[in-house]
Amino acid sequence: MEIIIFDTQKELDAYAADLFINTVKQKPNAVLGLATGSTPVGIYDKIVETTIQNKISFSEVTTFNLDEYVGLKPENEQSYAYYMNEHLFSHIDIPSEQTHLPNGMAEDIEAECTRYETMLGDQPVDIQLLGLGHNGHIGFNEPDENLSGGTHAVKLKEETMKANARFFASMEEVPQYAITMGVGSILKAKTIVLVVRGADKAEIVKEALTGPITTNVPASLLQTHAHVIVLLDREAGRMLS
Q1: Rounded distance, CA 211 to CA 220, Å?
Q2: Rounded to an integer, what distance in angstroms lies between the CA atom of residue 50 and that of residue 219?
Q3: Structurally, how many domains does the chain consist of?
Q4: Which of 13, 67, 117, 126 is catalytic?
Q5: Are the beta carbons of 135 and 129 closer than 8 angstroms?
Q6: Where in the sequence is the domain holding 8, given as residue range(s)?
Q7: Residue of 60, 76, 134, 135 marked catalytic
């Protein structure tokens, strides 16, 4: 596991963006695993900026997102499909049919999970972007005695819903369920890039990266992966020696 701590958000975003851009340069038909939330916004901005400046093509790239809320249509401004179009897809030349998110509006959610997991098996992810929840979740894999390996539907923990409430008009509007890649799905990526920001994440960063491997801290399972790159700002990394 490689851990890099940055003095500025700008440096962190540029480094993370370069990891993905260089993957595409080296492998034009790369498969990228993508995340949403506040953490990747600056990274996507930098990818777009660099792509335009250097005329980099994503026309052969395929993407898979970690998760999507159940019950939100893609045109809903709080859906992850809308987020990805807003922050990345509409600014690069990737064909829409090569961008994949779980369908949170599927009539049969279990069948949708199976469909998505099959797609991931057919097109293994070259590089996967991850954020880290306050309770140690990755994707929407919440702390539990048991974790699902493959793509599955999950009921969100109250603390996760509260963390996401800032994106909604009220707590009542926050979806209670989501479809997420499982930890097993995530760990199949050839390279994993974990990005964490902020002093409020310092304790869970230390626990996830240096503590025991346990399903009660899902991110701790990243310690078992052969190639994880951890990018932290000074505040998030302050408890690491």
Answers
A1: 7
A2: 30
A3: 1
A4: 67
A5: no
A6: 2-194+203-231
A7: 135
Q: Quickly tell me which residue has 């009542």 as its tokens.
A: 172
Average confidence score pLDDT of the chain: 95
- pLDDT confidence bin for 158, thresholds 50/70/90: confident
Say what the alpha-carbon torsion angle 134, 135, 137, 142 is, to the nearest 10 degrees.
Answer: -140
Query: Residue 92 carries which DSSP code?
Result: S
- Told to judge if 145 belongs to the known catalytic residues of this protein, a careful annotator would answer no
pLDDT band with cut points at 50, 70 and 90 for residue 146: confident
Encoded tokens for 89? 């897809």
Place of tokens 């792509």: 51
Task: State the pLDDT at residue 210.
Answer: 97
pTM, to two decimals: 0.94
Which residues touch 30 (CB under 8 Å, ≥6 apart)?
23, 24, 61, 62, 126, 127
Q: Confirm whether 142 is a catalytic residue.
A: yes
In a domain, 105, yes or no: yes
